[in-house]
Predict the 3D structure of the following.
Amino acid sequence: MSEGQAEISRKVKRASQLLFFQRHRKPGVKGWELRKALGPDFMKIIDILNSELDKLNLQVKVVFEEAEAPHEPSEEQVGRARFFITIKKPLAVSDVISSGWRIDDIAALAATIALVISRQGKMARKDVEQILREKFPKWRVDLNLDRFIKNGYLLQDEQDMLHIGWRTRAEIDQKTLMNLILSK
């Protein structure tokens, strides 16, 4: 192996360490952290890592701060974006349940995301609570909404409006979710 290949291999290993092990409250790593650890060519390293992860049904997902991913992101946008490893193809329900979430919590998350999406990406929290309370106890609704916000699936602004969070954009195929709900 040449010296250049050894350096690339070392950087791919370092990138996988940064992305697999959670060091902050939120999973993943900011683009500027990857640039600092791997050098200015870090996107090439991420592409190589992605090809290796593909064999394991995993991928490096990039989530930008903006709701829509920019067509040609600037260096600054890439620096602020969050990179993390996620599953490439959807999981079976049994796999999701074994992840530690209760089935009714998963149903509440799916319903909440679908509600917010159906209202062009924002909805008043009190309206979401009212709809969810028809199927779930009040204490469970409050607990779940706070949990979804804390985990990044939802964002809540100063006017108590709920928006789609960065983690929903990264982990959930919103179009497939809506198709599954509408097809039932």
